[in-house]
Amino acid sequence: MPSDFQDAKDHQFEEIRTGAAAPSHKLDIADLQAVRLVVSAELGRCKMLVRDVLELRRGSVVPLDKLAGEMTDIFVSGRPFARGEVIPLGDALHVRIGEVIGASDKEGDPTSED
After folding, report:
1. E strands, 38-100, where?
2. Which of 8, 10, 80, 94 gets the highest tally of CB atoms within 10 A of its CB?
3. Over the stretch 40-99, which tens digit does the pLDDT of each residue have?
4. Is residue 42 part of a domain?
């Protein structure tokens, strides 16, 4: 019975250069400025039993864990970025940034996906 690999030959891969010998192209922040990110604001959360979710209808009120006027959390690509005040402008809601979260604040966040 002939082997499917009888004509296979060894292949030598080129060595990957790292460090100073690698071709250098420094990425500048300007290279990233046109990249689109998902920005979202979270008004609040709640936990509900399945039976309660199944009873939700038009006009149902879902209680959230934030108080009226409390700062809302703003996420960039799912990561905490800032907090702000929800304000109506025209027919839409907007968020006025009140606080940008520092890197040290983000590291301790339980929603971080590191």
Report:
1. 39-42, 72-76, 79-89, 92-100
2. 80
3. 999 999 999 999 999 999 999 999 998 888 999 999 999 999 999 999 999 999 999 999
4. yes
Give CA–CA dist 29/33, Å, rounded. Answer: 7
CATH of the domain at 83: 2.30.330.10
- Note whether residue 20 is domain-resident: no
pLDDT in tens, 59-70: 999 999 988 889
The whole domain housing 55 covers 37-107
Phi, psi at residue 5, to the nearest 5°? Answer: -110, 10
- Does 22 reside within a domain? no
Give how many domains the chain has, as a whole number: 1
Among candidate residues 40, 43, 51, 48, the one with its CA nearest the CA of residue 81: 40
Q: Helices in 1-114 by DSSP H: which ranges?
A: 50-54, 103-107
